[in-house]
Amino acid sequence: MPMVTVSISPLQAAGIRAAVDTGTYASSSEVVREALRMWDAARKRSDVCDVPIAANDETNRGGRCVADMFADYEAETHTHN
Question: Which of 3, 21, 32, 60 has fewest C-beta within 10 Å?
Fold first, then answer.
């Protein structure tokens, strides 16, 4: 499998570690792969755009950021558990 190096915030790293520590995911790679699958699915549904748009850009009013999508996913996951 190809290897990619990315930089993430300490808060993101802690979230990934927590997901693995609680047994939700087997590895940090699994967490990131699922996040990328969700992002790709959202792009295919046109929920997010491929090109970052400035927050004050009028054309972005209907778009959702990835953080919002993850928050929705987490809220849905916790209500079903």
Answer: 3
Three-state SS at 4 = coil
**List of residues 6+ apart from 2 with CB closer than 8 A:** none
Please say whether the dihedral angle defined by the alpha carbons of residues 31, 32, 33 and 34, taken in this order, is positive or negative: positive
- Asked whether residue 63 carries a pLDDT value surpassing 70, the answer given is no
Comparing C-alpha atoms, which of 36, 52, 44, 49 is closest to residue 1? 36
CA distance linking residue 3 with residue 47, whole number of Å: 27
Say which amino acid occupies 55: A
Measured between alpha carbons, how far is 56 from 68 in angstroms, rounded to an integer?
17
